[in-house]
Structures
1.
Amino acid sequence: MEQATPPAAGVDLSPAAIDLGRVHLLSCGIRNNSAVAVSDYFKPRDNGVEVDGIRVEESFFRGRKLQGATVALPDGYRGYVLEKNGEKDTQGMDGDVSSFVSRAEFQNITYWNHDTMPSAEDPLPRCFHWLTIANTMHKPVTAEDMANMSAMQNRNS
């Protein structure tokens, strides 16, 4: 009996004409989908503090002090702001599969902590280490690499 493969989610990155430069990551939920002049209310500023080589920024959101840091995406990577496409979702075996369209792209993420100073040990900066590991694991092995490994094994024997 042949199993049907579920449809894959589609992502169209071609229309990303707006370069935001950076986006903000706040760990909170906002129940609003309308346009808002965020820059009129959310005004980050450099507070002159540096921790673990990271420049700390400060801002306030709904009266609560936030401390953040801007992290550049690694070379070769781009971030995208996606919006669910208005087309009808396809029904897969495991549920709905959506398609998305790119609305903007960015190269930097400013993440914000509520109660702690930003540091190199925060989850966002640490997750970028996995990109290096993934690239190394998935890099094709060349004949030269194999010869080098064979030579090292022979030296160790």
Note: The radius of gyration is 22 Å.
2.
Amino acid sequence: MFLARIISTLPRRRFYTYLPSSAPTPGFALLHSYSSTHPYAKPYNDVSPSNTSSSLTGQVESVEINVAPGIALEGHKRQVVGAVLDLLQGKVTVQKMSRSFWAEDAVFEDNMNKAIGINEVEGHVWSLKTLMKDIKVLNHQVTQVEPNIVMDVENQYNVRSLNTEKVVKSKVVISIDKNNKIKRVMDMWGGSLPEGMLSKALRRVNAYTTAKVVGIPEGH
């Protein structure tokens, strides 16, 4: 009772915080700041339905896209990233390889293959189902969206013939042309592609041979 009387005699002060109507609440801002910068926090996932408008919507399995703080990945580009993540895991379908989404002169290259033209690209991505027992994307994060989409990817490959697993970290660069079609995908293991003349020649032979050998479902 004595303490309550003392408190009642203290002067009362009011504190006001002026925020614009469009500003996020302090609680949300604090939470977003923590989730973006805390060393143990997971990358921010932008899964808002308003950011998924694209002709690829409904075709893509990888819908939760990790983006770096400050990166806005929306609309068709978001769906393209999801489709490429699917393809890197061997989750290829006729719909995902439609000419509506890929340029006729598209290029898809990694450290073992350089596929030039949509026919070779199709052969390469369909071959993953045959060559690999399983492929998993362990981690990924989009770090850039202009002028090209860039993301860091960690893949775990289980080679069917060897029955062995290998984890590969790579930098993936995706280029989209003026018609919003995928123009180029570079899956650079360790962050770079082989530059030697022999390596380049072998990568072209691998891609060309694979396109001739692998069966591609009809429907394009």
Note: Residues 1-52 have pLDDT under 50 and may be disordered.
